[in-house]
Amino acid sequence: MHTLLILLLSLRTASAVSLRGISPENLHLYEPDPNGNWRCLNNPEIVIPYDRINDDYCDCPDGSDEPGTNACFSSQFFCLNEGFKSNYIRSWKVDDGVCDYDVCCDGSDEPEGVCENKCEQLRKEWLENVQIHNRNIQRGLILKNKLIDHAKVIKEDLNREYHEIESDIDELQSFLEELETEKKSMDKNAVFIMDKFKNVEGKLDETEIKLADSLSQMKEYIEKLESLEKVLQKMNNEYNHNFNDPAVKSAAQEYLNFAASVDNTRINFNDIIINIKGEFDSTKLEISNLRDSILELKSEKKQSELEPTVIDHIMDVLGTVCKEIVEGFLGINTETNLETVEKGSSNLQKKSDSSIDDQISEVQSTLKSKRSKLNQLNDELSKNYGPDDILRAMAECVTSHIGDYDYKLCLTSTVEQINSDGRSTRIGRFENIQYSQEKKNYELLFTGGEKCWNGPYREAVVDIVCGDKLGIKLVTEPEKCVYQFKVVSPLGCFEEDILTIE
Ligand code: MAN
Prior knowledge:
By secondary structure, the chain is an alpha+beta fold. Helices cover about 45% and strands about 15% of the residues.
């Protein structure tokens, strides 16, 4: 009987206790013990009568005895928000006369009848917002994927260009080596040609001297012959025919026979000498011109003009001409061996119209510019352009007027601040992109901006949020010359940000 009474009493007490502010899953924590008592949740040593739960007096240090009143500052009030999302509200906001619909849409944070239940209306609004949010992310994701595809193509193109330039450099390098080797051998051949010509020209000089000597001897003989002729002529004209001297008669007759056999037109030996000398000089000039042309052609590499057969032919003709002149008039064996000029010397010229030196410097300068392009490409390829290299496809710029300035942001190059006079101040150059755990999104760092008067070099952090079109939403300057941008872009859209509706 006694036990039954206690049980009935405790049941009566339990039913009188308000379980306001307790979530259904925590209800089991708020059951009385067999003695009708209850222990503070985080301080089980403190035992209070069960009916002191929600009696508007704070008994437990953790506030667990007052989940449905504002008696304990630290406790949390549970709003069921049926039909929408359940929530907890800080207990000091309970029964304060304010309907905290943002947390308790069912109005349960205030006494019954004070706040109407707005859960259905708020859920509708929330659903609309979720749909807008999700549509925004989905649109952004489609664009983001297109950008990723484009970035892939850009990177492939860069890689292809890199490899093409790399193989161009290899080819140019071996061509340069070839040209340098050829230049060395050409220099050797030039010396060889000069030697041969010196030899030929020396021999011609000697021959010229011998020729001059022989001609003057001949002139002397001819003069002597002429004076002898004059003596005989005189004797023939003046001898006394009455003296029958057979020796004189015979000599006079011999002279007359001789005079009759000789052509009356006297050979002018001076003219002959002048002619021979003239021909000799012109041959020497031709040889000297030939030498100059060979050397010139060698350096200019005019293939067509310096085929081996052409050179050989010139040499042959000159050799014969010299021989003919000298041997024809004097019978001197000149031994002028022009054929000994090495025929191989003509193979110096074999490639293009420009001289080998010009070609070498042209190849060197092409190599230089190709190498610098290769370095640029290497830098470009090793730059961090974010997830899937997406920024490679985002070299776009956007300008917005915010506060006193226009801000021009080019995602992969620079950020500028432009004042009303149109003067631009560089805030920074694109340095890096990194994922911020805190912001759950990407941020771009721009550094190396113009120096701030009496301050640091300007720099900026650009936070990205999801959007389908690049746009600057906000610019702040939390510290002097350190700027914070909030920018929308598909780059900030993530699949996992799509909200699900239960
Ligand atoms: C300019 C702007 C400002 C900056 C000051 C610093 O006015 O770049 O953003 O704070 O210079 O002197």
